[in-house]
Design a protein that fits this description.
heterodimer, A: mainly alpha, MetI-like fold, B: MetI-like fold, 2 domains, 0% strand
Amino acid sequence: MRLASAQEITRDMFEPLQLGAGEGEAITRPPISYWREVVRRFRRNRLAVVGLVILIALLVFAFAGPLFTHWDPREQSLFDTNKPPSGEHWFGTDNLGRDMFARLCYGTKVSLFVGVMAALIDLVVGVIYGGISGYFGGAVDDVMMRVVDILYGIPYIIVAILLLVVIGPGLWSVILAMTITGWVGMARLVRGQVLQLKEQEYVLAARALGASHLGIILRHLIPNAMGVIIVQMTFTIPGAIFGEAFLSFIGLGVPLPLASLGTMANDGYQYLRIYPYQLIIPAIAIIMTMLGFNFVGDGLRDALDPKLRR
Amino acid sequence: MLAALWIIVTATFFLMHSIPGDPFLGDKVTEAIRQNMLRKYGLDKPLWEQYVIYLGNLLRGDFGTSLKMLHRSVNDMIRDGFPVSALLGLEALAYAVTIGLVLGTLAGFRHNTWLDYLAMFVALIGISVPGFIMGGLMQYVIGLKLGWLPIARWEGFRYTIMPAAALGLGTLAVMARMMRTSVLEVTNQDYIKTAKAKGLSQREIVFRHILRNAILPIVTILGPLTAGIVTGSFVIELIFGIPGLGKYYVQSIFNRDYTLILGTTIFYAVLLVFLNFLVDVAYGIVDPRIRLMRSRE
């Protein structure tokens, strides 16, 4: 509401800029690629960065931790059972006298391995299955998705338990049990993406230029669906770690002498009343893993989805 | 739905029977005794015949008998254990749905206030702390150190609070998070503006327009969430010493009691598939658009 003052602005108050033709249109900032923009948005999200820091700390702990201790995670000592945390044993010892710090490093490594392997297997199977189903469409899609729908209705933990009872516990049996129906989610997701993407003009162009079906799927469709795929993976990893811990708790996790965070929590639970640190220490490790992956997953989902850009 | 059930039954049956050896192998068992035992349980017949008999029994509602515990059938265990498990599950679901929805709704309406942060903090704990660890920690802190609630067993309402809370926590967290996003999304829709413009009271807008629409996505994930509660009960019942079906199931796994595992697995599978089906039906009732789409097909 300052109309009066607007009249006080006279022409000579303006100073014309001397610009050559086209100079005003020049792009002054360097162009930002999609992935650079993702990184930028991810770094602006405080929780996501915290999650990333937690994950890096866990990795360092799992792989560099053993360098700082001379204890062997498998070495039992009946003279040193159930020692509380001290300078000698940083996290104490368990009921068989094994050093909890060394064991926790080892268990974290095994748990992360289970999670990452399960996610990778889901990725490969799901992307191939979903890619083919979505790309070819029609009857192929109908049949392939019928199978997926049926598998999707079967509760995965029941299948995992059954499978482990039949083939016996083991590191790879646990991974197999986690993935045997786990890939279905990824396949559905990839199919949905491919169905959308294959109608794009660049796919038509690629086909006109004589690209093979496989080439189009691998070179054009999958890279464009990568964002969604990565987000799904960051949620599969903690899911598999959680599943393994759950199975360990009912005696079907990785067998001795292996240890995972789940088997450690289970061992610790037996002595909860007298030595609570034996449950609390692996529990904190599991919680940190879950938090780290969930923060990073949420952050990535927000960063990768341009629709949410504000 | 029937196809999924048939595949589960068939796969379970043949997987269980593919385990080498039979339950009656042992040093003290002579060949004659073994043959008699095999005949008694019908294990001497060819596999496909056993399969047909088993399927027939299933259709009549007979899940088979235990190999380890004499005169104990899977049906007995379901009759004893399932009501307990169902009660525990329903209580957990009740906590999760009411508290989860209220937290999520409040967080959505009071976006970026301390209420929002508090609700999301609770949700974060629920998502990152597995139920069985939460159960153990609750037993230690609330049961042992503070002595507020009994640590284990199943003898009245006070005994149900802790296990149900531990069981429902994960679901509560997912509910709260989804409800919050959903409320935020619906509040920005044009039809809310319309409702405001035509002069509806705040109360009417919230209950008739915002909440009714915001709750739709929640109904779709109710199926997987219920499944999570059912499977979560395996461990929770074990930890809290609750005589439910989940505990029997885990014990039959420990004992390698194959017919029991087979029977309970199938029962659980049927239950979960059925629950999923119910959720589908419920979704059709809640969202008229789905009903319209189906009737047009």
